[in-house]
Amino acid sequence: MTKEIEQKLRDEIRDLLETGKVDHIIGYEAGSLKFSTTPLITGDKADVDRLVINPFIYNNLSVFLRDMCGKVGIVAKKCDARSIVSLIQSQQIARENVFIIGVPCGGIIDLAKVEKLTGLDRDEIDDIVWQKEKAVVTFGGNTREFPAKEVLADACLGCAPSDFPEYDIFIGESESLVAGKDLGRNKIKELEEMAPAQRWEFWKNEFSRCIRCYACRQICPACFCNRCFVEETEPLYISPVPKWQDNLFFQAIRMLHVAGRCTNCGECERACPVNIPLGALSKKMEEIVEELFEYRAGMDKDAPPLMTAYQLEECEDLIR
User: Tens of pLDDT along 190-211?
Assistant: First the structure.
């Protein structure tokens, strides 16, 4: 089925480029490492055969849209499509300049989880494929099966079942291998069960490891300020030296800035070179937004952005 969808995707995008309906496309091609992909941005129809669709299409490609000119075709998973809608809501891109090619996504496989479960590294594994709700891992002539919830990326475990919010064409059929809001809350539950002092110590230790590389900011579609507050010198908000207090302050402010725009795609945590569990922060922030405002980011391109709309009944709830 994956190969059929992949071929149909190539045919559709080739037609879009040949007919001039789009000037460029943003999709996925095979990465340099086994079981990896990398973004493919091209306007050359000869490159179309490099496009792939598999359980390792990690990147949220919407992050590239603000830097593109002309009409752009983009391959989008559900969380990516929500990010695109959020960018449209915030007037960062125009809907008429984007051609959204929706693709089914039952969730992205976390290779590190597969390696831990099998005791193998990626070079020792021959293949990993979905079969219904299980990941089938082939190695050395042997196979092992794992339930989807054991190998999916954490952000995918917390992906709430919903309709694909926006697309021009959809290839294949929408699917969800794992449903259940609580599946993606393991880290949050662990933190909520801690005493406040213990939780503070946890984040102190985590942000002591932060090297302030800003990979989380750069990969995030919702972080689109032309100049970030951390780069301001008058006033100087935080020290350029990556002290844990300033690192925590940076992430706290960043979470507030992306509230109502973050789709919890998990890119910030995936990009972190020291593996700080940033996904727990973004997921908790998403839950707070939904609880306080009954709002989910990127679901309706015609709805006003969260922080630009006001309803009278909000006042009483927030003051209480």
Answer: 999 999 999 999 999 999 999 9
Cβ contacts of 39 within 8 Å, gap of 6 or more? 26, 27, 28, 29, 59, 61, 64
What's the pLDDT tens digit per position in 259-318?
Answer: 999 998 999 999 999 999 999 999 999 999 988 888 899 999 999 888 887 666 665 655
**Hey, what are 219's tokens?**
């990969």
3-state SS track over the chain: CHHHHHHHHHHHHHHHHHCCCCCEEEEEEECCCCCCEEEEEECCHHHHHHECCCCCCCCCHHHHHHHCCCCEEEEECHHHHHHHHHHHHCCCCCHHHEEEEECCCCCCECHHHHHHHHCCCHHHCCEEEEECCEEEEEECCEEEEEEHHHHECHHHHCCCCCCCCCCCEECCCCCCCCCCHHHHCHHHHHHHCCCHHHHHHHHHHHHHCCCCCCHHHHHCCCCCCCCCHHHCECCECCCCCCCHHHHHHHHHHHHHHHCCCCCCCCHHHHHCCCCCCHHHHHHHHHHHHHHHHCCCCCCCCCCCCHHHCCCHHHHHHHHC
Using one digit for the tens of pLDDT, what is the confidence trace for 67-116?
Answer: 999 999 999 999 899 999 999 999 999 999 999 999 988 789 999 999 99
Structural domain boundaries of the chain? 2-108+152-315, 110-151
Query: Would you identify the CATH topology of the domain 110-151?
Result: Nuclear Transport Factor 2; Chain: A, (3.10.450)
